[in-house]
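Protein modeling request. Please complete all fields; requests missing the sequence field cannot be processed.
Requester role: graduate student
Desired output: 3D structure, token encoding
Chains: 1
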Amino acid sequence: MPSSAVPAATVISVPTRASHDTDLPPRIADHQQHGEDGPITTGKDEGPKSRPAVAAAPVLSGAYRFVSAPDFLNQDVADLTAGGREQHTDPDTGTVANSTNPAYERALDQVLSEVGSHGATDLLVAGDLMEGRWGRDDSGAGVFGPVRTDSQRMAAAQEAAAVYYPAWSRRLTEQGLTPYPALGDHEIGDNPWTKRGDAWIRFKRKHVPAFKQLFASELLRKPDGERRFVDRPSSGQARDTAYAVRLDANVLLVTIDPFTRRHGEVRARVDRAQLKWLQEVLRRARREAVPWVMVQGHTPIAGPVRYRNSSQLTYQGGTDSALWRTMVKGGVDVYLCGEVHDQTVNLRDGILQVAHGSLFYRGEASYLLGQATAKRLVFENHQFRGRVDFTDRLWTTSRLGAPGSVVYPDASLVTGTLEARRTASGGVDIESSEGILRPVRGRLTSSRHR
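Delivered output (450 residues):
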């Protein structure tokens, strides 16, 4: 986990064919793939909790409502003492190792009860549900067993998945929320995967398929083992982790897996089988005249985007990639992504990329409330202003746990809105935008024939 110092937000550049004009703060950092916690970089913006409120978006009559919250939780949170589990002591602190406490439970209830209060039951999560650094035991507490060999590490990862994934799902379902998760880098051990001579990095790079299978087995299957989603790639590395589902008569959601292992390396790009499947899904959506086609994936593709406490992963090739060209040609309207723990709207080639989300354990929880009718689409960014205390830490498999206390005393504020409509020619126009959801380019409208 990062240190308790909370840096201000800044932005990273992502490869793009578009012009570089932007209304973001002028400090721009070139994209790099950093280590687990990313760099601490400051800019003019003091961060999500400092941003002013704006007027709420209009309520669309009869609209389908949904919530999107990437990087929720980006942390392993579960009661390791429940259900008759053997209790272990953290050698560093002398206390029972646990990954939650009453303060966390109260804060989670506060945030999730508000999320569920808008009449939306579908929760989209574009990756990084977990901390996911499983198969290691930095404190030596032995919570999930020994981790001296690769087979022991894999067994420990399986034990961790069997505890943390169900706890994550259970919290949502108890609030009446149905999750639609995407794979993030933390679900496959967290980047980087390239450092040589490190046993942990070698292990997680080698076992990417196994990590993906843990994610799919715990989250994308029903209790009887049947797959939740029928529409998925029939082959390739994303056959169990990518899927398409009609959320509503007006909305198709396509969830991609942007991580591919090839020649022993892990890259942020889809494999050929997944790309071919996506092309067919989008062709079918055209034939069926789906009003709004949304894709969710963990990494930003267009840029620049703000980032905060992030390793700054971006999609390989950016808007020159085959994935982006496929989405443009296929008529995708919205690309929802996370990773950067901040909010930025980019408008490129007729696609609205909404990079959003934030870190609950840093007191910066946020979510995007969406409304969709056949001809209108509205987004509203909700930002909490919480407090954290690093005096104590929760136990996790990696070297430092999250802060021992997180408090969310107040309801969220609306810090950004965006209203879009379908044009007569089949394109998309942004009618209005305020606050943090104003697109970073000066031009607010774009038309594209579907």
